[in-house]
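#onboarding

Welcome to the new folks! Below is a worked example of what a typical request in this channel looks like: someone posts a single protein sequence, and someone else replies with the predicted structure as tokens. Don't worry about understanding the tokens yet, we'll cover that in week two.

Example request:
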Amino acid sequence: MRLVYMMMFLLFAFIACEENVNQYAEIETEYNLFMIINTGNPYQAGIITKSYFGNGTDPNFNYVDPFVEDLQVRMWYEDTVKIFEPGLLTINQNTASESNIKVYEHNDCIIETNVAVELEVVLNEERRFRSYLLTPDTLQFIADLTDQILPPPEETHIIANWEGVSRQIIFLPRLKIWYRKTDFIDRYYYVPIAFTDYEGERIPVFSRGSAVTNISIPLTIVQQAMEDISAGDFRKSDYKIMKAFWEIAVFDENLSTYYAINVDAAEDFNVNLNSFRFSNVSGANGLFGAYHITTLPVRIDPDYIYSFGYVAGFPY
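Example response:
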């Protein structure tokens, strides 16, 4: 989810930025659609924006909300049709940089895996946008090659392997630790695959989406992550470590292509995010994609938990 919201926020933030604009040419409005389905989740949302022609060159006095109002947004799948309504999506929730962006949303739109989905947006009698996708299927972990206990006995890494689906499909793997404090609120810590130093600060490095069907994390990194859960807090016994999970996000072919082209290219600070290198929307620029997350529980050895001063949530 964090990846999806980040991508949506980037599109919203930069969609009005054009390079080499001829301010005196006749401007034709371009429309941009960005919607990613999270299978199995009842909440779905998307952004529909338009380009605009400003007055002057000073961005501080030249802002127009690119969100397109009063659209008919419909989604079909199996024997169901859903009508999306305008709403607000909170970005960076519960942080100082929290903000809201306008979206078209639906709160009761559960779409399963391996399902054909059609999206239609009606702008007016003359113009409408359409797109289609097939939601990704659930992946299968290879049990004999996937560690389901932390730390794995007599190993230096914790490893997961799963069956590939297609060369065009991208996977985004994570290992997360479920824990609680004395307030009994569920919290999750995502374990990086490495740490790097940047200007004297230790920065976590997470795995990137790829077609690779395995992930390997050194136990030294897991140990550092376990320590970071309570960093700066001397009351270690206030922390109850429940268990861990392998979490693998599977992208559909549309999202896989978009990720491979745009996310990799976005590392170049000169990239123009408004120039869609991939679009699967008829009548507009943009992306209609989907992803599915498969999880596998990982038991954490109680003695390993106690070694950090924490409490074991499942003492077995």
